[in-house]
Design a protein that fits this description.
heterodimer; A: 289 residues; mainly alpha; Formate dehydrogenase/DMSO reductase fold; B: 202 residues; alpha+beta; Alpha-Beta Plaits; binds iron/sulfur cluster
Chain lengths: 289, 202
Amino acid sequence: MDLVQQQLWGWNIATYLFFGGLGGATLALGILAELRFNLNKWFGILTSLLGLAIISFGLIWLVIDLINPLRFLLAFWIAGIGHSWIARGMVVITGSYIFGVLYAIAAFFGSTTFKKWMGYIAMFCGFGVTTYTGLLLNANVGVPFWHTPALPILFTVSALSTGCALLMLILAAMKSDEAEHYFHFVEGFDILLISLELLIIFAYLDFARLGNAAVMKSAHLLMGNPLFTIGFVVLGLITPLILEAFASVKHSAKGLAGVASILVLIGGFLLRYLITWAGVFQYPHGIAG
Amino acid sequence: MARYGMVMNVHACLGCRACMAACSQWNQTPFWAEDFKGKWRTRVTEIEEGKFPEIKRHFFPTICMHCVNPPCASVCPTEATYINKDGVVLIDYDLCLGCGYCIEACPYDARYEYELDDLKKDEFYFGEDARHHQAHVDKCTFCVDRLEEGLEPSCAATCVGHTRIFGDLDDPNSEVAKLVNTGEAKPLGNYMGTKPKVYYIK
Ligand code: SF4
Ligand code: SF4
């Protein structure tokens, strides 16, 4: 068995995975706020457009990573939709754009039923974008650390958590009662998500301890990297969890929640980068020399 | 319809790398790259085994395994990667987005990027005969163009030590079929479920 750390995917792909997940979650949670939590139509319109802008920003990094970025239009040729997560991802991304914009237009003109339908479909697509970023890595059978169902779950939970963080930052700056109400909902939801994320990370690393040489090597790489242990686990998960828990029992502690949000966002980015970085190929002996 | 496959008799490999040279000339792959590990459709890797003073060295030839269940094709969004009627895994360069997803998905390190710079070099060395006209992902094709003319893949045709034995696995009288059917030659990493059609005698 030859173990070789993968080199092909680096910062570009990690940046794409992060902003894709963040944008999808912002879109979905922003529309949810307007449809179910009585936030006004401008909140819905602006967060959905913000989500789409973030996805677009992420896509730039994916295009830069193509061998020839000028051929990016081929990405819309999704003949491989039956089996490829890039093709499926393109569908949910395109869906997010179409239904996100239709939702924003309907909200602007106040057409309630149409807005609801478009909003729910856009939410579904946005949620799809968050999930697919993990499934993308998952399909690589040669990298056992990625080839586990834990990965898409981890990325989905983390993406939703970063979406919550961004919304908290926006809501903290608003003054209405509805904003206050949704702020507390998102805060509680984020506490749940971060706790889940800690549990998944723990289970993930514990599973690595039990075997498969390549998975063990990936886990060692992560545990030996302070960006992971201190940067992601301590500063990106545990600290914001404590801050948010503290802020949730004290009223008017939005500053704390704001700091927590920024840490969650940085942690989410680190997680994408580190998981990609720690991918180790398990080649049959002789392939890599 | 055939089911092409190859057997690598590792014991017979001299490490002369004539196959790498022949392949890179025929298929115009980036022989201008600097090392023996980078952009090749076929590689011959030197392996050392054991501990001093009992070190054994041998040479290990690899190519695309032309998997029956190829992860590279599963991840390909545009179906640029496909399996032809003879079981050869190929890439349609016109459809290749250049996402590199297949390079990451291949568990045999068989693929590489044919970049814009390589296109320039290809044109520089081969002029009007240049065969690569757009950036794409590249890998072994079993020399499909030669197969159509009844020739063997260029590496097998050049092989000095009779290491590379090529043929139709469906023809029970072929040398490959015999080596595979008797169990003498075995695939690499079969536990991954890829079902390679390149087999090894080790
Ligand atoms: S060896 Fe790699 S490139 Fe070749 S068919 Fe199998 S997965 Fe695809
Ligand atoms: S690089 Fe080309 S062949 Fe490979 S997965 Fe992408 S589109 Fe398919």
